[in-house]
Structures are given as C-alpha cells and as structure tokens.
Amino acid sequence: MHRPASAGDDHAIVGENGAGKSTLIKVLGGVHQPDAGRLMVGGREVRLSSPRDAFDKGIVVIHQELSLAPHLSAEENIFLGHFPRTAFGLVDRRAMRTRTRELLDRLSIRIDQTRPVGELSIAQQQMVEIAKAISLEARVLILDEPTAVLDETMVETLFALVARLKAEGIGIVFISHHLEEIFRIADRVTVLRDGQRTGLAEVADVDQAWLVGKMIGREFPAHAAGSRVTGEPALEVEDLGLEGVFSGITFTVRRGEILGLAGLVGAGRTEVAQAIIGVTPPTTGRIRVFGRKVRITNPNVAARLGIAYVTEDRKALGLLQNRPVRENATISNLRRFRRLGFLRLGAERSYVREVIRRLDVRLAGMEVEIQTLSGGNQQKVLIGRALSLDPKILVFDEPTRGVDIGAKSEIYGFIEELVASGVAVLLISSEMEEILRLSDRVLVLRNGRVAAMLDRGEATESRIMHAAALADGDAGPERP
Amino acid sequence: MTAITPSRPLGLTTIADVWRRTGVLVALILLVIAASFLSDRFLTVPNLLNVLRQVAIVGILALGMTFVILTKGIDLSVGSILGVSVVLYAGLLESQPMAVAIPLGLAAAMLAGLVNGIGVAYAGIPPFIMTLGMLSFARGIAFIYTGGTPIPILNESFYDLGNGYLLGIPIPSLILIAVLLASWVVLTLTPFGRCVYGIGSNEDAARLSGVPVRLYKTIVYMISGLVSGLAGLVYASQLSIGTPIAGQGYELDAIAAVVVGGTSLFGGRGSVFGTFVGTLIIGVLANILNLTGVDPFVQQLFKGALIVVAVFIMARADRA
To answer: What ipTM was estimated for this complex?
Structure first.
C-alpha cells in the first residue's frame, strides 16, 4: 500500500486527507515499516525499525500536536534526555542556558527560554520543537502541517525559519493543505491521492490549478457569487465583554446571513464565540436572540435557544475519540431520540444515516470509532452533531481547519445551503480566502476589540489584514 | 463511496468492543475448561451455584464501580460504605422491622455516594483523593456506631437475603443478576448512560455538547454508593452480624473485576457485561484453587498475576 517518495531538500507533499500523507509520515518517521521500496538518507539506504531509529539517523518529524513537556522551559525541553553535566554529575544549568541561547540566536528565534513552554504561544512552542530537532543534529526535518495552527504573521516567522534551515543544509519535507504555501517555500512537490503519487514536479514549473487537478482530479468550484437576501436579526450582541479578554463587542447576524469574524490568533474570536454559547459567560453586555433578551449560562441554554457551535479544537473540545461515530453525532441532542426515558436506537441510527448521506461522510460504518476517520470526515460528523439541534444560529469556529480541499469545498457548500434555508451563521476563520468567499459582512477583531466592520463590497484581504494588525506595527500583535 | 454497514445487534458496537467482550468471554471459557480437568467437583451444579453466590458481593460492587470508572473516575470507598450499611442494618434491626432498616441503610450508602459526587464534580477534588477520604471517614463511622463491637442480627427472616434460594438459585446471585441487567439498561438504553460514556471519553467535549457533566458525575457516585449498600445487605445477611470491619479491602477486588472485565481506566470504554465476566473469572480462579487445595497464601499470587496479565492482553487488543 505504499508509494515511492524521494526526500530531498525543501520537498513539499500535498494531498487530500486520506490520500496517504499521514501514513507516509509514519513510514518516514519509523512508526510503520514499508512493505516495499527503499528509503535513502544522505545517499545511503536505511531501514527504520522505530521512531528512535529514525531519529538516530537524522529524521525528525514535527507533528501538529507538539511533544514538549509543558511545565519545563525551552532550554530544559531542548536538552531533555541529554542534559550537560557538571563535574558532580548534576545538570549544568549555565552551560544549558548558554548553549540554548547560541542555538536560538543562530536560528533567530526570539523567545524567553526560561519560561515554561506551556505559557508560550503555539507558534513559539513549534519553534522550540524545531530548535530541539536541530540541536539533535537532524538532517531531515518533516513538518506535518505546521501552519494549520498558526495565523498569518506567525506563518511568516515560521517560513523565515525554514529558509534559514534550508541555508544550513537541512532537508525539509513540508506537508500542507495550503497550496499557496507550497509556492512560497518549496522547491519540489509530490502530490498524493489514494495512496498513490499522482504528481512530482519542480514547483517553478507548475501552478495551483495543476496541483489541485492532481489532488482531487476535478475542477475547483468557482466562488459563490452575489449577495444574499437576509431576514430579521437572529443574534444581536451589544457591548459584550469578558474581563481581561475582550470588551465592547457589538454586532448583529441576520437570518440567512454569514457574518465573518476575522482577526489574528489571540484577537479573542473564539473567546467571543464561547461567551455567546455560554462556555465562559460574558461579564458585561447584552445578547438578544430573535429580539428576545437572553442570558446564556451554559451550552445547554444556548442549545435550547437554537444556537449551535462547531469548535475549532476538534480533539480537545469536539471528539469523543473512543466512541462510535453514531454516538458522536447525537450526543448534543439525545432528547430528540428519547421516548419514556429510553433511547430509540432505531431512530438514532436513521438520523445518523441521514447525516452521513447529507454530509457525504466517508466511513466504514457508523459504529467505527470516530478517531479512525480523517479530519474532514470527523468535522462533518461534528457538523452533524450541531445540526441535531436544528439550530437557527450556527457558530462555526475554523470549520475547515485540518480538513482537505475536497471536504473543504463540501463544507462550504453545506454552510451556504444552511444559510439559504434561513440559518444565521457566525463564521470564525483564520483563512482569508474562507472569510472572503463566504461572508456577507466581516467583523475584524484586534486585541479583544472591534477593529472594523466591513461590508461584502469593501472587504478585501488587505483591508482585513490592515484592521487586524494595524496598531501593533510590523512585529504583529502578541498577546500575553 | 458512502458506505453504511447494516446495523449490528445491540451492545456489540465497535470491533474493539467485540474483541473486548469476546476476548474476556473466551478467557472465562478456557478457564472453565481447564478447571473441569483439574477437579471433578468443579463442573457440578452445587459448586457452580456456590461460585455464583461467592462472587455476588464483589460482583455487585464491581457493577457500581463500572459506572464510576467509565467516567474516568474511581471509587475507593465502596468497601467502607458497605461497612457502614452493614452496621446500620444490624443496629436498626435490633429495634426496627426490615421495611425500615433496609431503606435507611441503602439511603445512608447513597448519601455517602452523594458526598463523593459533590466532592468530585462540584468541588473538583480528584476522585482518587475524595474517595480515599471517604474510605477512611465511612470506616470511622462504622466503628463509632458500633463502638468497635459487632452487633448480632437476630431477625431470622433477614437471613434469607444472603442464604436463601429462589427457584434453586441463591438469592445473592439473583440480586447480582438483577443489578447487572438494570445497569445494562441504564448504560445502553438511556440518555444518562450514553452521557456516562461521553463524559469518560472527553469530558470537555461532553460539556460543550450540553451534557450536564457535574450532575451526571454526582449521580454516578450515588449509584456506586447505593449499590455498595445493596452488597452490604447481602453481606449482613450472610454473616448475620454487623461487624465494623465488613468489606475492608473489597474496593480493590471490585476494581480488579472491572479491569479484568475490559473496562478502561482511562474512561469511555467498557461494559457491565465485561465486568460480570471479569467477576466470574476471578471467582472461578479462586474456586479451582480452593478445590485443588492450593495454599490460600499462594492464591494471592495467582490473583495478582491474573489482573496484570488481563490488562496486558487488553492493552494489546486495543492497539491491534
């Protein structure tokens, strides 16, 4: 089931979820052993029996989920397992500090190396992990969707780091859903589909359309056109605030409308959403739902008011990993299947079958554990969970994060379908293309405050970025 | 390429689940076959009924424990709560009829569970610590109530609960099976049971999905308390004496039965049928070691090894 891949300098690998990228990474990282084919590192054939073995041979995989010890500082993390020793055999803190500083300076990484890494931003943690790999003399660095968790300014910093690593002669294998990134940093690209290589090219010789063609074997759908006809206000938020997080947030979402919520990571978008649905109730301000003033103290209250939320953090806040797809799809509204206190399992199954059909979830059956599904299919199931509430207002928080292009356009189509049926949608996204493509209006947040409200006609990438990053100068905002 | 497999029979959910259940069941069957070769007396109706009676108390405790462990919790206080209920039954039966003594004993046990639940779910105390506290506290109550001296039970109609037969089956075994069936219905056929699995699988996701996590966790500990009181009923009746040391160490036997039965200590995975089979495995092992005259001290080694090996196999099955 495996495919050939020659890992050279700055090589990008793209493909839809389920195309075999993750499996390929596991083979390269020594987790799985290939059934056929050869793997060469530095011109010599190698066999990797375990992740440790891959590591010893200079191959380091940086996963989306970082593997740092959150309570230890950057320097402790970097030297974990091979601390410099003093003459007495104790950890030589001074040597550790100096060597870490040298390393970080060399890579131009600017962080507080003595703070517990758990207190650093995701982007900074990622850099610590890369620095650690470099300190262990990695020759090939495999970055598995490193930008999925970063906002645009952080992506820039990461790319600058990747460029320096290239200059140092380190081979980079870069896995991404974001095609524009490939053109920015990769020299060569491999496209996978269904476990097969469908394309291998010098990046300079190809364009996005070629990549997309190789990935999905069909044309990328055209952008939605025109403005929607919107109805009465569904969700009105006035002067909403949460002590120390955000304040003065005012906006309205109408029936049949998508309000985009843009901003840099840390601007408070998710926090606003979670205040609205009652995860962390706001400390000030008013919320009206279809004109009626409401107090939403927990997600259950929100659900009863017809507000559903699809989380940005599938793993931590969404998935019941070791439970079947069926249970994942219905946990939000078991009331729907209850009669005389008991669950009607037949009704539940037919509901789930309907969700699977409507959202085109690809799976072996509704009884498989959700953790076995690809990101896109997991997301579809979680959307199905939100729909079980028959919501009038839907809050999508990064609805296509970690989702492949095929599933992405399906999810877009689905959101548009919902809106057309009169649902009000609040769409939080870090992807400019997503915001611009779907939103009727765009609300931009910066440091917990409203920075701009743009109509469809005036919303452009540069305007949004301008509003989102303006006050903080060239370094980009970094919230404590 | 949307594929929908035909719906499977109730309860048999995922492939891992099937393995979990049949794997444990296969282990029990192999053990029974081995036991019948080792001793002629093993595969006789009186002996098998005897096993079923002997496992009843720990088996009942283990069923309540399963609820708690499914939510990723633990209840170390079940043995002590059993102890409190036992001395209460004995003390109350000195002056009261069964119809008063039994409900009061059960209510006290459930109250202890309620305190555990509030401590865990609302005060945020780790289950291990909260129930460790209750283990000591409840035991203390049992000693204070009796003044350290066992209270004899003289009400003879009370003896039937632990020693009697109904349709040729020991009443404690019938109670065990009734609790098993009730637990199964609650866990698989009610929204509450579904949420118990959800909470154990991912508590934050369950909360975000509108599951009343704190309330349900509290209820889970109340169930464990109530069930401990029920096990105490069988205990008090079998021994016809209310001793304050009743049930000491039973929490570990109950946890062992749950774990051998395939329920994950990490929450969200497992079943009460697994726990029942796990209880039987431990019971049959003890029985055959007795029948073949193995030194009771050596029996401890077997039990310890069984627990570790069972969990080892389970962990491998999960990975497969």
So the answer is: 0.87
